[in-house]
């Protein structure tokens, strides 16, 4: 049993040796040597080998003929192989000989292909590097040419596009290191150009403003011509041409070229005579700097710097010179600088995007407007020349119109001009006051002699005077008024023209202009001319003849007032009978002056009468009176007669002929007579005259009769009956009472309307009677021894007593 298992195991091992790879037979053999049947296995193995040898021998015997045949064929093949080897060797030698040239060509081809590959690589690298070098070269040229904005764009393109494609070459690294330096240099240089620009426009702002204002003036003249043509009925629709205030908007983007000056084309082809205000300024530094800072990402910094610097310049521009008010040129330079400043700002506003905005410009303008108005109010207040004020007004209007053309609100300037109108009016009043006084001082107070028709027409052209009767008279002849009248009338018209000149171009309606002129003319009439007339009337050494001529002059000026009304209406095109039309006060002014002259005549006459009365030298103690009037009174009567003969030239009313006797002469005569009567009575009753004799009363009565003869003679025509005698009625009744000693009638009829001595005041009679009573006592020392004297004294005492009782009764 055990031997069978061993035999089976050996059989398995043999099969495994036969079927297993030689490299893996080790474990199988080890299992043989590990067992006890090693010899038995070896026997078994040798038996198996012999079996295989027998099988091989059988196999070889079976295939031997084929092997022999194969050997035979192989021997044959060896001969052929030798031949073939010789042929191959020969062929190889020939091939090696022939391949040397080919190998040389192939090597050359390889070298050529390598060079081609290197050249292609080099070209590719140069393709990326040459644009960098070209661009850097262009950058250097632009920097040398100071074309900084294109240089900055080139720098940007170089950094963003070219250098990354070129690769990491050393020159690229050097360029990359220089880029920030170049940017800083460009920024600094552009800022330097901007500073130069700001300094330049600060220095030349007056020239810019002057040009802009000239453009506005030319445009205003053109508009005036167009308006005039329309008014004259040309019937053509004329286009309002583009003026200096027209703005051309710019995109504000990057400039196409470095030479973009930013100047606006503000002129038509027809405006070659006045260059555009912006043609004087090259704005390219601003645009360059703005674009450069925008590209550099510092636009906010640039905007802040620009606005800050311009605000500083605005403060300098708005600061007027201390002596600006002395000449018009000072105001002109001031306005030119302001206009130039805002023309530049307005151009910057419309040609850049956001460098300045509308709110910033409006804020600057509001500040400028308030400071300008304050400066003008201060400096114009020092001005006393109306021509300078008028020129200043025209300059302010041109200043306002210029800035209004650029879109700036200027209503406050026109409001200030309306305020200045009052100052202008006051200065005109002062000037015309001097003119009126000069006319008054130079006037000869004599009627104007006219020798020829030309002289008459000339004066009629100066003053609206019409007198059919005077025109019928032959030359030479005299006009009733003096040179004062046409000169004053001409000055009134000149004043109206001066007021009209100021109201022009203030955008006022015709009604407002008419109202302004009328109010100013009323001030001239009621204040200035009225004061001058009072000056003429009240000045020293003015004679009655001069006063008479003043009355005649004022009468004719009063008659001319409606012509002044028509004159104002004609120049303002406003009817004088409008609802809101202001009336001239010339009539009342000349009436007041005439009344004042009349009062002055009355006063002067009374003063002259008083001067004559001061020469009176009565002998109040005379025993009896003389048969003739006193010398002083005769001289006084002669003076009054000659004076009232002059009065025959006084007008009776504004519509009567100037040479007719008037109410003024009658009033003057009546006033003189009343004053003479009153003065004589006061002379009789004055305190210094303590005693009055009957003889003195008789002489006084003779003088009063002389006055009555003068009144009865009618020195001035026009009195009815004995009206002028009534001036002496009080004195006449008093003297009749004393000379006729008619006390019984006086005392009996006192208080009755039909009393003979109705005008005798008991106080006056008592005062005079007391003086006569004292005379009787002192001059008749022995009167008590004479019966007649005693009776007379008793009678005087009785009358005195009755008069006192009468006065007491009436007082109670």
From TrEMBL:
InterPro entries: EXOC6/Sec15, EXOC6/Sec15_C, EXOC6/Sec15_C_dom1, EXOC6_Sec15_N, EXOC6PINT-1/Sec15/Tip20_C_dom2. Residues 247-260 have a biased composition (Polar residues). One of its GO terms (biological process) is vesicle tethering involved in exocytosis. Residues 44-213 form the Exocyst complex component EXOC6/Sec15 N-terminal domain. It comes from the Eukaryota. Pfam families: EXOC6_Sec15_N (PF20651), Sec15_C (PF04091). One of its GO terms (cellular component) is exocyst. Residues 412-771 form the Exocyst complex subunit EXOC6/Sec15 C-terminal domain. Keywords: Exocytosis, Transport. Residues 212-262 are annotated as: Disordered. Component of the exocyst complex involved in the docking of exocytic vesicles with fusion sites on the plasma membrane. Belongs to the SEC15 family. This is Exocyst complex component. It comes from Astyanax mexicanus.
């Amino acid at each position: 049993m055990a031997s069978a298992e061993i035999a089976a195991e050996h059989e398995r091992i043999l099969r495994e040796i036969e079927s297993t790879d030689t490299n893996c037979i080790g474990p199988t053999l080890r299992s043989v040597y590990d067992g006890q049947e090693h010899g038995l296995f070896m026997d078994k193995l040798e038996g198996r080998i012999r079996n295989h040898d027998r099988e091989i021998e059988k196999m070889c015997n079976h295939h031997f003929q084929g092997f022999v045949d194969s050997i035979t064929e192989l021997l044959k093949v060896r001969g052929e192989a030798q031949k073939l080897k010789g042929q191959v060797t020969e062929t190889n030698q020939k091939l090696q000989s022939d391949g040397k040239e080919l190998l040389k060509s192939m090597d050359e081809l390889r070298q050529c292909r390598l060079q081609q590959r290197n050249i292609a690589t080099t070209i590719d690298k140069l393709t990326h590097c040459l644009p960098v070098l070209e661009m850097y070269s262009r950058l250097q040229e632009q920097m040398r040419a100071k074309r900084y904005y294109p240089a900055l764009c080139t720098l940007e393109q170089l950094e963003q596009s070219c250098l990354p494609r070129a690769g990491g070459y050393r020159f690229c690294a050097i360029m990359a290191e220089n880029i920030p330096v170049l940017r800083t240099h460009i920024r600094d240089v552009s800022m330097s150009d901007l500073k130069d620009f700001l300094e330049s426009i600060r220095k030349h702002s007056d020239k810019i403003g002057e040009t802009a204002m000239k453009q506005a003036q030319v445009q205003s003249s053109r508009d005036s011509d167009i308006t005039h043509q329309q008014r004259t009925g040309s019937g053509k629709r004329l286009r309002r041409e583009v003026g200096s205030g027209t703005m051309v908007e710019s995109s504000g983007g990057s400039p196409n070229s470095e030479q973009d000056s930013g100047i606006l084309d503000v002129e038509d082809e027809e405006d070659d005579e006045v260059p555009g205000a912006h043609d004087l300024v090259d704005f390219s530094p601003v645009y360059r700097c703005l674009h450069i800072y925008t590209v550099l990402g510092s636009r906010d910094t640039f905007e802040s710097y620009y606005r800050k610097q311009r605000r500083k310049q605005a403060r300098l521009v708005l600061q007027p010179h201390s002596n600006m008010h002395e000449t018009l040129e000072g105001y002109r330079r001031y306005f030119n600088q302001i206009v130039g400043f805002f023309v530049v700002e307005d151009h910057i506003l419309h040609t850049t995007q956001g460098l300045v905005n509308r709110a910033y410009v409006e804020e600057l303008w509001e500040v400028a407007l308030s400071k300008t108005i304050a400066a003008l109010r201060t400096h114009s207040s020092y001005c006393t020349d109306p021509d300078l004020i008028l020129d200043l007004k025209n300059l302010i209007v041109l200043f306002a119109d210029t800035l209004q053309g650029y879109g700036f609100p200027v209503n406050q300037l026109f409001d200030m001009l309306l305020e200045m109108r009052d100052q202008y009016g006051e200065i005109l009043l002062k000037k015309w006051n001097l003119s009126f006084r000069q006319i008054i001082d130079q006037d000869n107070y004599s009627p104007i002699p006219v020798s020829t028709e030309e002289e008459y027409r000339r004066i009629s052209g100066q003053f609206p005077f019409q007198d059919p009767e005077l025109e019928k008279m032959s030359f030479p002849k005299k006009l009733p008024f003096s040179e004062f009248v046409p000169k004053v009338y001409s000055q009134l018209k000149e004043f109206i023209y001066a007021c009209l000149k100021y109201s022009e171009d203030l955008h006022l309606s015709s009604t407002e202009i008419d109202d302004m002129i009328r109010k100013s003319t009323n001030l001239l009439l009621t204040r200035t001319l009225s004061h001058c007339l009072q000056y003429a009337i009240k000045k020293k050494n003015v004679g009655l003849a001069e006063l008479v001529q003043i009355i005649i002059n004022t009468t004719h000026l009063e008659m001319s007032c409606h012509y002044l009304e028509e004159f104002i209406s004609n120049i303002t095109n406003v009817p004088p009978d409008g609802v809101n039309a202001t009336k001239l006060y010339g009539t009342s002014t000349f009436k007041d002056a005439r009344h004042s002259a009349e009062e002055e005549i009355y006063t002067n006459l009374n003063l002259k009468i008083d001067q004559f009365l001061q020469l009176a030298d009565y002998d109040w103690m005379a025993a009896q009176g003389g048969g003739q009037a006193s010398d002083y009174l005769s001289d006084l009567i002669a003076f009054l007669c000659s004076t009232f003969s002059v009065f025959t030239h006084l007008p009776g009313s504004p519509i009567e002929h100037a040479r007719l006797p008037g109410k003024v002469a009658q009033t003057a005569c009546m006033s003189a007579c009343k004053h003479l009567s009153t003065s004589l009575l006061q002379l009789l009753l004055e305190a210094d005259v303590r005693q009055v004799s009957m003889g003195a009363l008789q002489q006084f009565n003779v003088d009063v009769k002389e006055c009555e003869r003068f009144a009865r003679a009618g020195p001035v025509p026009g009195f009815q009956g004995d009206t002028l005698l009534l001036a002496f009625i009080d004195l006449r009744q008093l003297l009749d009472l004393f000379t006729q000693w008619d006390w019984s009638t006086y005392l009996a009829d006192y208080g009755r309307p039909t009393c003979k001595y109705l005008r005798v005041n008991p106080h006056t009679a008592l005062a005079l009677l007391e003086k006569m009573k004292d005379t009787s006592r002192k001059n008749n020392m022995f009167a008590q021894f004479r019966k007649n004297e005693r009776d007379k004294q008793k009678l005087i005492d009785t009358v005195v007593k009755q008069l006192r009782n009468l006065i007491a009764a009436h007082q109670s």
